[in-house]
Design brief:
Strand content: 5-15%
Shape: globular
Strand order of the largest sheet: 1-2
């Protein structure tokens, strides 16, 4: 007789289950990662990776508008990502924890400023829904659609 395991009620609808790892052959589930550091007064602070990153990003960018201005002004978006990494804010572990295929822009907006977590594909679909290409001729629309498909598959700077 096969008995199904009871459903995991700790997983909210629409969320992926936590990833499973094995330590010395024993299955374990990562439920969250913690960051520990000493604050300005020398006290040990322990917080989630997500909270740590959110607080650090909000110190760097006081508001969503401030972040958007900096992002739009940057010639190379990768330069902003490299600046964050040089300050100890690698986005890769955070992206893994969030668990969606977000580009750095959407990841920062989601974590630091509580914006919806949109994947590249969802963002491209939103552009298609707004039907912004209708004001262009057929040839320009074809080029724009090809670019939108490329962005939805691979991301962009």
């Amino acid at each position: 007789m096969i008995v199904d395991e009871p459903p995991d009620i700790s997983i909210r609808p629409g969320e992926d289950p936590p990833r499973k790892i094995y330590v010395d052959g024993v299955g374990a589930t990562i439920v969250g990662e913690r960051v520990e550091y000493l604050d300005e007064q020398g006290r040990l602070v322990t917080e989630t990776l997500r909270d740590f990153t959110k607080n650090a990003l909000k110190k760097r960018f006081a508001s969503l508008d401030a972040f958007l201005k900096r992002w739009k002004a940057a010639e190379r978006k990768q330069a902003i990502i490299e600046e964050l990494e040089n300050e100890g804010l690698s986005l890769d572990p955070l992206a893994e924890e969030v668990g969606k295929d977000l580009d750095p822009f959407d990841l920062i907006c989601h974590v630091a400023f509580d914006q919806p977590a949109l994947t590249r594909r969802e963002r491209a679909d939103n552009v298609r829904k707004r039907d912004v290409f209708t004001k262009y001729g057929p040839q320009a629309r074809a080029v724009l659609e090809a670019l939108l498909q490329k962005v939805s598959r691979s991301g962009s700077d």
